[in-house]
Amino acid sequence: MNQPIIELKGVTKSFGPVNVLKGVDFKAYEGKVTALVGDNGAGKSTLIKGLAGVQPYDGGQVLFGGEPVHLHHPKDAAKHGIEVVYQDLALCDNLDIVQNMFLGREETRVGTFEEGRMEVEAAAALQTLSVKTVKSLRQKVASLSGGQRQTVAIARAVVKQAKVVILDEPTAALGVAQTAQVLSLVRRLADHGVAVIIISHNLQDVFKVADDISVLYLGSMTARIATADTNPNDVVGYITGTKTMEVAS
Ligand SMILES: Nc1ncnc2c1ncn2[C@@H]1O[C@H](COP(=O)(O)OP(=O)(O)OP(=O)(O)O)[C@@H](O)[C@H]1O
Ligand SMILES: [Mg+2]
Asked: Which of 26, 37, 45 to mutate to test the pocket of ligand 1 (most atoms within 8 A of CB)?
């Protein structure tokens, strides 16, 4: 197996007396979709917040492309091309699609926004992802469907040339057709060489899109397995703690 772009070794995180992450190992690879699953409160979001630099780990090691890195601030994560698409998406309803994609880092030239250039890049990002459902780039995000909003959030990561894209429950609020669209978008993102980490409670989605599955159970990584080598029944067992496996580091 080639080298993981992200590797966590024994990361820990506590809130007061509560140990939420108890020495977690985790790997993600370029060009692959890695699902992170586990029951409510297992520590998935806490693991992701550490990678995003918004809530640093207390201990353990983070390797990026094999090199130790410190992720103490969101800027550290951004510097390494790690982008998180949170469930609430953090899009601005009153802005249009292009403005949302470039939010906070508008292309400026002599003090004015280069609207034309941003529009071209936004269109290119959507084309890269073969997105055809968005009618106008100048549409306000408030008028988009849930799936389209998710699409804009994911395309924003493409615009930023992210190497690692983390999606926290991207399909939770979506209907059947939109879920299918977002999942195929996730697949295309990985096909472009991005390491995608997807948190999901929906095992049907996980089995459709993920190459590998990592299972958190009460703050410990209790399974890491190729999707092709397992089945939903077993994964439910790992999630609920009724089934265990040896996790090689
Ligand atoms: N800031 C915090 N302060 C105190 N406890 C916290 C904090 N953040 C998370 N926790 C606790 O850590 C545990 C793991 O939370 P986390 O949000 O990581 O779970 P999760 O796996 O993402 O769950 P869900 O599937 O419900 O989103 C929970 O018991 C939660 O109460
Ligand atoms: Mg969570």
From this structure: 45
